[in-house]
Design brief:
single chain, about 20% strand, alpha/beta, Rossmann fold, binds D-malate
Length: about 280
């Protein structure tokens, strides 16, 4: 473990920074923290410098006052990451991997700071905005978490995060996910849910993303299903530079990096190696 603390105005970000080689940025999902990438961090650090932050409000990272009421747009999380990369003296274009909410953030990085990215791997994520019903459910969870003073209401997501087979055969993994969710703070949950509820539909802008791209999806993902990620890969490929591969991960639902870590690591490693080879 090589945890570092980056102070940035009112915000403080915890980041795991380890290994050596060309950098890979791993952006976690909701309502999790950087430890969801534990297997990938251990496997990739021998070949890459692995940078795995806790987004603002999650894990060891702190919100700015009022974030929980106002909500944090995906572009705010992305801006935090650009400042953090500068602080880490990472000047070269990097490979970023975003899982689910981390994917929403990674797409903002790619669209707003295109020079920062050499490669973009989108894992179990969506480019579309929420339907009205999902928006309402997010606001309801944000309010419930703040009322409870903890992340308890977010535990209800577990059945959707993991494939049914994972839940049946890997109760240890389900418990690990539960522990990660349970240690998140109400404020972090509320800020992210309010921000995700109003995130924009970026499908029409995916062809503006210049970085080499890859899509990864758990075959049984119920939140960002393979068909939807296939559509994203097609839209990303529209810029016409190169094909965008969709890697389907067997024996995995939404949380593919934890459900089938070896297969996700292999996909990331091959993609990042190729991105840096082409440089
Ligand atoms: C995640 O895994 O980050 C969440 O499912 C994202 C979301 O709630 O849209």
């Amino acid at each position: 473990m090589a945890l570092r603390q980056f102070l940035h105005g009112d915000v403080s970000l915890t980041v795991e920074d380890c290994g050596s080689g060309p950098p890979i940025l791993l952006i976690h999902g909701f309502p999790l923290d950087h430890t969801m990438w534990q297997s990938q961090i251990e496997a990739l650090r021998s070949q890459f410098r692995v940078v795995a932050p806790d987004l603002r409000g999650f894990g060891g990272s702190r919100l700015a006052p009022g974030d929980e009421d106002l909500g944090l747009g995906m572009e705010h999380y992305a801006a935090d990451l650009t400042a953090m990369l500068q602080w880490l003296s990472i000047g070269e274009p990097i490979v970023a991997v975003g899982f689910s909410m981390g994917g929403y953030v990674a797409m903002q990085l790619a669209l707003r700071w295109p020079k920062l990215l050499r490669g973009l791997a989108l894992c179990d994520t969506r480019a579309a905005a929420d339907a009205e019903e999902s928006r309402a459910a997010r606001i309801k969870m944000a309010d419930a978490a703040m009322q409870a003073g903890n992340s308890g209401p977010a535990l209800a997501m577990i059945p959707k995060l993991l494939a049914e087979r994972t839940r049946q055969e890997r109760p240890d993994l389900a418990e690990q996910v539960e522990r990660i969710i349970a240690r998140q703070r109400a404020e972090g949950v509320a800020a992210a849910q309010r921000g995700m509820a109003r995130r924009e539909d970026v499908r029409g802008r995916l062809d503006h993303i210049a970085a080499h791209s890859l899509c990864i999806v758990g075959r049984e993902d119920a939140i960002s299903p393979p068909a939807e990620m296939h559509e994203m890969a097609v839209l990303l490929a529209k810029r016409g530079e190169d094909d965008v591969q969709l890697v389907e991960i067997e024996h995995a639902g939404h949380l593919s990096p934890m459900e089938n870590p070896a297969a996700v690591t292999q996909a990331i490693q091959a993609f990042a190696t190729e991105c840096y080879r082409r440089a």
